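=== Discrete structure encoding ===
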Amino acid sequence: MARARAHDGLAPLDFERFWAENRQALRDPWAADCPQLPLGIGMSDECVFAELGVPEDWRRLEQDRAWNLELRRRYNDRAERIVGRRLLHEFALAGPPAWTGIRQLHDIFEARNVWQNTSYWLQSAAANAEELEALLDRVERRLENLREFLLPADWAEQQARVLAAGGHVPPYRSQRGPVTFAMSVFGPEALIFLILDRPDLAARFRDLILRAILERARILDEEAGFTPATAPRGWYWLDDNCALLNAEMYEFFGAPILQAVFERYSPEPQDLRGQHSDSDMAQHLPALGRLGLNAVNFGPNLTIAQIREHLPRAVISGQLAPFTFSRHEEVNMVAECLRDFEMARERKGVVFATAGSVNNGSRLSGLRLLMAAIQEYCRYG
């Protein structure tokens, strides 16, 4: 039935009405006829553990596709009953053959991606200024013939196989942000002192990161058959560690990279200029405003009013604290939803979502509570 009854122990909700109005709201969160505060919480794979009572096994979830798919299906069966929709993709694990061996930006800078605990982490590739200079020398030589380095030896065979199965060369339009990337390659404290003590070397590091990003994107576009005129538009950064730089350092190191990439791939106001930084990085809001960001997901200690002051045209995804959600703090969840709606009511342009990742412990019953709160109390007009 469309209307979930209160006696099931969960918040009463009209599923069909909610999802229809949410679909309309997400199409244009600024629209005059936007019916409600849009909900943008996408439950993640890791939520299956707490929801299904399955012991956490992150490595197996990452590597065992059949087990992952089984858990997604069980989770989706439960989601259908509780929130009226299957939330996790099932087709993604059974699509065309995957590309293998395409080297990433961190490979260009010789940073190893190593599994630790629950995810992959980049390992530093240089321990001091002398090692960094030598690394950048090697990167410069690598960039002279980057295509040969990026693409695997069996690239032609992969193209034939994947394209025949309906796949396509993946565009490169998202990247670990420049500060987070540089701190992964060289270390957080090391980068800060490098900018202070060796701005010449820091600038060289910055410029090679930019050059590598642009060249990698160009090569993959060409392999996909795009020209500069037909290439996909838009770019999205993930730069949590930008919070560790002050505003002046960021203007020197991070902002020039964003500006150049946006000029290449997001030249028009409507092109995606997005960033996720689930950290306390309010000091960078003026710079990000000048860069014209139009889609953001920032840390929970920033408010919608604070972000909106500097980013008047950005769709803000937030500002529910991830641990409020994952700890199932029901009163705080609703309170944060109502708070954000009040800040969004006058100008709109807000999608209610977690200010960061959706973590294990985030429950479907909590999502339904938020849906019910939006349906009852967060309507425009």
